[in-house]
């Protein structure tokens, strides 16, 4: 049993979501960054789509109760294991075993807003095929609720074996978020489309699992088309533009239908990168073709598979890191030597 | 019927038949929805995750790792010509209680403004709304949220220019010629004219959603005392396997 000591804001149990119910108005929900959830589960030998804890800025602390538990950390954050009289610090992208009574304190994500903690042998009931929490309708998770202090997550006791690590996925490089224009790009005039594809947009504090409002160049609806459509289906990644002209990106818990024109849709390969951005971060958009989006989707999956295939004992990774450090040091000293020669 | 494909990202494609609330559009959407589910059931259209019917379009959601836009488009074009058998059963008839106006903290705060905008008194708006037999056109937005119509033109007003950040659960609302009930608290831009005490969705119910497309809804104006009593009675029903079918007027056709 894993006990939540503190959950910060919005921490919840998520898996890869609950497809198939959008016609009833039920969003898919699921991890905002599904790749990290899959990596965390892969580190533990769980099914990749097993549920795990998604947490936000504000951090997360959990305690192993009566038996040792193995966890895995995925996301850009560091953690501390607090035991009676000792503390050990560790970086993310690895597994860690908590002895009974030990507490894992996850720090704030150092980039973006989301981190994941997976639990070996986690047991959470599924509703409509998924354990993903959709708190608005009380679906999934523990009793349909966000995690709160004192909540307990059942899991099988750790059976031993060494810790496993993975190569950290490349950090976001700030490249534009790719979109496909449409379905209602014809509701916007040419200067607005041009502004949308060139101006920087800032993630506003109004960002949750449902969506994120952006702040930047105002987008104008063509007067002859108007600011409303007869409601049609939305998807995670839909970029709606209400009358005031500031775009709003729908995410995993987003509504399944809406009456605001949608200027574009974020491609599936880039949606997680946008969804984990923190308020205040800046984003730019670039339009791509369907073919480019499909290529990007396959490339994202291949990159994830490569990371999973590379998972190994942490001792190997420690060695790798040390070698890299030495190599880097040699390069630096080499430069210094070369400068000295001149 | 003419249609166009609309890009909805690399995981979805929308087939749009028109932009309005019209019976012929609803029929075209239903026909394509049925044709696609037949094609999928017979092993075609690999990679489709789900389809989402609306008033005037069908959105096909797919996994780009299992299929491609080209394959999905081809499958849809084939389905558009396929013969289908539509469900011609008449929808069920419900009578749902509504506490109109701002008699409650969580009631209909926009009734007065909507009435003024329509050049009517609040009592006239209530009388017009309560006299309607509405049809459920689609579910969407939130779990179990029924988009229903049609309001008379005199009640038709666009959505609020500033959407509310919090619309209370149970709010009965209007936008244009549509009316709906918010099953859960959420942001929303519709005009709130009353409150319905019934739950509209539960994972414990066999069909999960209380209403389904094609159902018809009549309204019964209730006072605050009855509203409070019903809210209390309904609290248990959400977690029980029994949806509140006692509000069905023609339970015989329920199936």
**Largest beta sheet of chain B, briefly?**
7 strands, mixed, barrel
Instruction: Specify Rg of chain B, calculated over alpha carbons.
Output: 20 Å
Mean model confidence by pLDDT of chain B: 93
CA distance, first residue to last residue of chain B: 31 Å
Question: What structural class do helix, strand and pairing data of chain B support?
Answer: alpha+beta
Give the percentage of residues in beta strands of chain B. Answer: 25-35%
Low-pLDDT segments of chain A: 319-342
Order of helices and strands of chain B: EEHEEHEHHEEEEEEEEH
Fold and architecture overview:
The complex is a heterodimer of chains A (342) and B (255). Chain A is an alpha+beta fold and 342 residues long. Chain A folds into three domains: 2-165, no CATH class; 177-300, Cyclophilin-like (Cyclophilin), CATH 2.40.100.10; 312-341. Chain A is built from five helices and 23 strands. In chain A, the strands form five sheets. An eight-stranded mixed β-sheet of chain A has the order 21-14-15-18-17-20-13-22. A six-stranded antiparallel β-sheet of chain A has the order 7-6-9-4-1-11, with no helix packed on it. In chain A, strand 14 and strand 15 form a beta hairpin. Chain A starts with a strand and ends with a helix. With 255 residues, chain B is an alpha+beta fold. The model of chain B has no long low-confidence stretch (mean pLDDT 93). In chain B, the strands form three sheets. A seven-stranded mixed β-barrel of chain B has the order 5-12-9-10-7-6-13. In chain B, strands 1-2-4-3 form a four-stranded antiparallel β-sheet, with helices on one face. A two-stranded antiparallel ribbon of chain B has the order 8-11. Chain B folds into two domains: 4-80, 2-Layer Sandwich (Gyrase A, domain 2), CATH 3.30.1360.40; 93-253, Cyclophilin-like (Cyclophilin). Helix content of chain B is 23%, strand content 26%. In chain B, helix 1 crosses helix 2 (69-80) and helix 3 crosses helix 4. In chain B, strand 6 (133-139) and strand 7 form a beta hairpin.
């Amino acid at each position: 049993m894993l006990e939540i000591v503190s959950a910060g804001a919005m921490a919840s149990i998520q898996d890869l979501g609950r497809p198939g119910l959008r016609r009833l108005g039920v969003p898919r929900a699921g991890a905002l960054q599904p790749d990290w959830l899959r990596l965390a589960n892969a580190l533990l030998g769980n099914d990749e789509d097993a549920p795990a804890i998604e947490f936000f800025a504000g951090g997360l602390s959990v305690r192993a109760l009566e038996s040792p538990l193995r966890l895995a950390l995925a996301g850009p954050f560091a953690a501390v294991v607090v035991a009676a009289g000792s503390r050990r610090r560790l970086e993310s992208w690895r597994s860690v075993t908590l002895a009974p009574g030990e507490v894992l304190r996850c720090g704030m994500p150092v980039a973006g807003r989301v981190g994941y903690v997976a639990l070996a042998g986690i047991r959470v009931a599924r509703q409509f095929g998924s354990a993903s929490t959709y708190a608005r309708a009380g679906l999934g998770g523990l009793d349909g609720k966000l995690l709160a202090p004192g909540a307990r997550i059942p899991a099988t006791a750790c059976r031993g074996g060494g810790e496993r690590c993975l190569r950290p996925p490349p950090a976001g490089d700030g490249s534009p978020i790719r979109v496909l224009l449409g379905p209602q790009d014809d509701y916007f005039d040419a200067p607005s489309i041009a502004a949308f594809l060139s101006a920087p947009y800032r993630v506003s504090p109004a960002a949750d699992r449902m969506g994120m409002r952006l702040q930047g160049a105002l987008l104008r609806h063509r007067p002859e088309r108007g600011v409303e459509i007869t409601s049609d289906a939305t998807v995670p990644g839909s970029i709606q533009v209400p009358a005031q002209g500031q775009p709003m990106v729908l995410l995993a818990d987003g509504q399944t239908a809406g009456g605001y024109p949608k200027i574009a849709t974020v491609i599936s390969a880039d949606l997680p990168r946008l969804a984990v951005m923190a308020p205040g971060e800046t984003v730019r958009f670039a339009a791509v073709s369907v073919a480019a989006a499909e290529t990007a989707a396959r490339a994202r999956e291949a990159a994830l598979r490569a990371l999973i295939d590379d998972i190994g004992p942490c001792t190997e990774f420690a060695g790798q890191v040390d070698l890299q450090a030495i190599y880097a040091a040699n390069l630096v000293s080499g430069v210094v030597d070369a400068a000295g020669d001149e | 019927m003419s249609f166009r494909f609309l890009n909805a990202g690399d995981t979805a494609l929308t087939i749009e038949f028109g932009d309005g609330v019209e019976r012929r559009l609803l029929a075209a959407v239903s026909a394509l929805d049925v044709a696609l589910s037949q094609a999928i059931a017979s092993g075609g259209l690999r990679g489709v995750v789900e389809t989402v019917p609306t008033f005037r379009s069908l959105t096909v959601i797919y996994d780009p790792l299992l299929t491609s836009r080209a394959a999905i488009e081809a499958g849809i074009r084939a389905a558009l010509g396929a013969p289908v058998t539509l469900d011609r059963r008449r929808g069920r008839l419900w009578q749902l209680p509504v506490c109109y106006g701002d008699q409650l903290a969580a009631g209909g705060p926009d009734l007065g403004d909507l009435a003024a905008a329509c050049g009517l008194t609040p009592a006239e708006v209530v009388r017009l709304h309560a006299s309607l037999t509405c049809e459920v056109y689609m579910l969407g937005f939130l779990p179990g949220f029924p988009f229903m119509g049609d309001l008379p033109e005199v009640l038709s007003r666009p959505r609020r220019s500033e959407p509310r950040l919090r619309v209370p659960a149970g709010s009965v609302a209007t936008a244009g010629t549509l009316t709906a009930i918010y099953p859960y608290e959420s942001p929303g831009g519709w005009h709130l004219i009353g409150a319905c005490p019934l739950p509209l969705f539960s994972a414990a119910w066999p069909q999960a959603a209380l209403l389904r497309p094609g159902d018809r809804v009549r309204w019964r104006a209730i006072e605050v005392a009855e509203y409070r009593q019903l809210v209390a009675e309904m609290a248990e029903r959400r977690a029980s396997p029994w949806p509140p079918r006692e509000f069905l007027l023609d339970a015989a056709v329920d199936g």
